[in-house]
Design brief:
By secondary structure, the protein is mainly α. Helices cover about 60% and strands about 0% of the residues. The radius of gyration is 21 Å and the shape is elongated.
Length: about 100
């Protein structure tokens, strides 16, 4: 994250996120945050944001070998018959848009 994007984030209104952790979990998080020169909040938010982005990317990024890619692109090139499932898919907002 760049300094300018951090400043932009800090200018936004803040909301509270409450968490419960064991003493051991809190100590581990504090040690890791200190090691990186971050506050506990900075460390936890950075870690949570990274995990959230990865979870969403896992739903959009996949790897194929050459044969699989050829099959995939052939399927994309075929015309699709409109149906209710397709209509629902194309009109439902993505989780991050809700």
């Amino acid at each position: 994250m760049t300094v300018s994007s951090r400043r932009a984030e800090t200018a936004l209104p803040r909301e509270t996120i409450n968490l419960r952790a064991s003493a051991e979990q809190k100590a581990l998080i504090d040690r890791a945050a200190s090691h990186l020169g971050k506050t506990r909040t900075e460390f936890m938010l950075d870690s949570a944001r990274e995990a959230a982005e990865n979870a969403l990317l896992d739903q959009r990024l996949f790897l194929l070998n050459d044969s699989q890619y050829a099959q995939f692109t052939a399927c994309l090139d075929e015309p699709v018959e409109p149906n209710e499932a397709l209509k629902k898919l194309l009109t439902t907002p993505s989780p991050w848009e809700r």
